[in-house]
Design goal:
The protein is α/β, with parallel strands linked by helices. It has twelve helices and twelve strands. Helix 4 packs across helix 5, helix 5 crosses helix 7 and helix 7 packs parallel to helix 8. The model has no long low-confidence stretch (mean pLDDT 91).
Length: 353
């Protein structure tokens, strides 16, 4: 999939990753390709286990020891970073590519003061004095919206709320001015109000610093507000991609329909039950031969159980891998309830302009 630009900062092609386990080889990522345009926010959406986090961790050299990159390339500034040595990764992490993780407490040392955790980045990587590192750290804490930064510099993570801890993690990830920021479900552990604040902060910082952002999430509702382009992943593969507006307002893959229909929504009609995705994801020790979503897809065709579909073009920027888009397939439209929700959301967006 391409961003249709000559200014791609990252080009991932045919990324295939498996894990060696006691039960056998788990095929976690299967032929994932995407381009990342400088300055954009690219979102990868899917259920837990779809392969989205594994794909992006490979771009940080943070895969588990049991992981095997079987094939594929990821070119960043002309070099395939998948072939980096650990020494090369140490020069790249934080400086070129940085990551915000889902759980801030897992990213912070609970027995080390917040200020120390930020300032040591400056002293280690820039070799500056402790006093100058403290000054830069306090400036960064202010930049991410932490009040009374001078006072809080000497506090521990347990003194901070979940939202404030995530702001600290964001500060750490931005300390060395990276080109690419990977956000791995950075708001999942936060309540709805704080989620909105953190999302706005990430978006504002992205615009101020001209960051290129990869946003990992299971929530298509979040994507509609933060992303420029979206890829939907299922069972280790991208099944649909396009601009955020195209995927959110004109989804074409039955899995994308299911994801959107299962999102909580304040416009649900009284008495209408929240949709659920029936069944379970496939066993990635032995992925199905055809479309991996076929067993859970109420619109599945016979061919879905035999042959994985290619990408079918919807627009110049919107593609989906579903046999329902084949010219000879029966015409199937998205569920009426989902169509109504999308139209309500579109009208709300128009009226807010």
């Amino acid at each position: 999939m391409s961003a249709n630009t000559n200014e791609n900062i990252l080009e991932v092609k045919d990324l295939t990753i498996s894990f060696n386990t006691y039960a056998g080889r788990v095929q976690a990522v299967r032929g994932v390709s995407f381009d990342l345009q400088k300055g954009e926010t690219f979102a990868i959406v899917g259920e837990s286990g779809s392969g989205k986090s594994v794909s992006t961790r490979s771009l940080m050299g943070l895969l588990a020891r049991t992981a095997v990159i079987e094939k594929g390339t990821a070119f960043y500034k002309g070099r395939d970073i998948l072939k980096y040595t650990e020494e090369e990764w140490e020069k790249t992490r934080g400086r070129e590519i940085s990551m915000i993780f889902q759980d801030p407490m897992a990213s912070l040392n609970p027995i080390k003061k917040i200020g120390k955790q930020i300032s040591e980045i400056f002293t280690i990587h820039h070799g500056i004095s402790s006093a100058e590192a403290k000054m830069k750290s306090i400036e960064l804490m202010r930049a991410v919206g932490i009040p009374e930064a001078e006072k809080r510099f000497n506090q521990y993570p347990f003194h901070f709320s979940g939202g404030m801890r995530q702001r600290v993690v964001i500060a750490i990830s931005l300390a060395l001015n990276p080109e690419i920021l990977i956000c791995d479900e950075p708001t999942t552990a936060l309540d709805v109000t704080i989620q909105a604040q953190v999302l706005k902060l990430i978006t504002d910082l992205k615009n101020e610093r001209n960051l290129t952002t990869i946003f990992i999430t299971h929530d298509l509702g979040v994507v509609a507000h933060v992303a420029d382009r979206v890829a939907v992943m299922y069972a280790g593969r991208i099944v649909e991609y396009g601009t955020a507006q195209e995927v959110y307002y004109n989804p074409a893959h039955p899995y994308t329909w299911s994801l959107m229909a299962s999102m909580p929504d304040m416009d649900v009609v009284a008495g209408e039950e929240l949709a659920v995705i029936q069944g379970t994801p496939p066993n990635m020790l032995t992925p199905p031969e055809g479309d991996a979503f076929a067993e859970r897809n109420p619109y599945a065709l016979k061919i879905d159980f035999k042959t994985h579909p290619p990408f079918f073009k919807i627009t110049d920027t919107h593609y989906a891998a579903t046999w329902l888009l084949h010219p000879d397939s029966p015409k199937v439209e998205m569920p009426t309830a989902l169509k109504r929700r999308i139209e309500t959301s579109r009208n709300r967006q128009r009226s807010s302009r």
